[in-house]
Amino acid sequence: MTAATLPTELPELTQDDLSRYSRHLILPEVGVEGQRKLKAARVLCVGTGGLGSPLALYLAAAGVGTLGLVDFDVVDASNLQRQIIHSTADIGRKKLDSAEEKLKALNPALNVVKHDTLLSSANALDILKDYDVVADGTDNFPTRYLVNDACVLLGKPNAYGSIFRFEGQASVFGAKDGPCYRCLYPEPPPPGLVPSCAEGGVLGILPGLIGVIQATEAIKLILGVGKPLIGRLLLVDALKMRFRELRLRKNPECPVCGTHPTVTQLIDYQQFCGLESASDVPKAVKNGIPQLSVKDLKRRMDAGENLFILDVREPFEYQIANIGGKLIPQNEVPQRIGEIDRSQEIIVHCKAGGRSQRIAEFLKQSGYPNVTNLAGGILAWSDEVDPAVPKY
Amino acid sequence: MTIFIPTPLRTFTAGKDAVEVNAATIAGALDELILAYPGLRKHLFTSEGKVRAFVNIYLNDEDVRYLPAKEATEVSPADTLSIIPSIAGGCQPR
After folding, report:
1. Confidence check on the interface: ipTM exceeds 0.85, yes or no
2. Which of A194, A250, A280, A379 would you mutate first to test chain B, the one with the most B CBs within 10 A?
């Protein structure tokens, strides 16, 4: 069963191809015809980071004809712990350019298409339509739902992978008769409930494991061999080196891929995930909580104001960098609420402003009359007030 | 029976990745879990007591939503429950 539709006229293999792919050609599951299918195939890698790095490299090595890359980010030193397609010399460079260079060095015959853009509802259908398989290596919920919905609407299979700390998930969504991401998770978690890698950390090797599983699935879909992870959720625990599999069912009531779909167009995914859209001007008040800029906080500190600054990060983060706030990690706030002075203005901060906004809302709901969120968190403080404060 | 606790929720189970409970049904097992670790409640259940939509509960390898008796399904000591939350795996700080 071929799960990816390729052109009926497959390209011929050159002499170079025959020597390069000899180990594929002698495999019954690939052979000359399989290699020609790979050469004809167009795979879109959404994200060239932790998952995208091994994914793109192995697809290039396997002889996939066209690789589309979507990433608008720039290489940062903290990426190099896991994003192995980039190197130290690439710090500050666009990830797309760095990735393209390594991929073409590995396989000069590869056709690389760079999409230097933020994938959005306005462009997703247009970008995805030219590909046969999509591999989702992104890092946030709105994009995951966007890619999922676009794949289902266009009929493209989605080799899905995601990671957190030392656990990973992999599956194939959007295949004909198979489930989609929304069959598994109809709704995203409220923002701030599931930390990103920047807040939770990630074992560097983990996206390597999962990214190669995604590449494997993409190749199987192109060749039409083996048993793809359609209707199967692979769970990987790297610390225990344990692999488990759960059964995924197609939900007949799924709003996107069910028998009576209600989502027939791409929606506003930022709103769906409870986040502000990126184009919004920074608001002075968010969900009833006044937002304080780091510059204004600095001004008030310099003026000698007696401020109650509540730092809701984890102890290890406080050790890396802090601005002298009172540390109560977010999960301990409910039990330790007695330590937070109700009569003062409470200025809540965290790393980037997400967790602190949630805790500020919690305090307000608990009856605190005067709560403020430090917009942008300690990262903004380092950017705009004191670059000596380390970023992490 | 054993309930496997996913990484994001282990802060609420004092770091344990598996919890043993005694129960006759899935619902009973989850109630025992929340009794032992009340911090889990708001992450697993809505205020109306329904399992939150971004969390999936599996009995062995089957999604509880698709079992005929759903949470009322009877369980044996050899069965396992797995809580699978959605993870996005991301590394973007902003």
Report:
1. no
2. A194
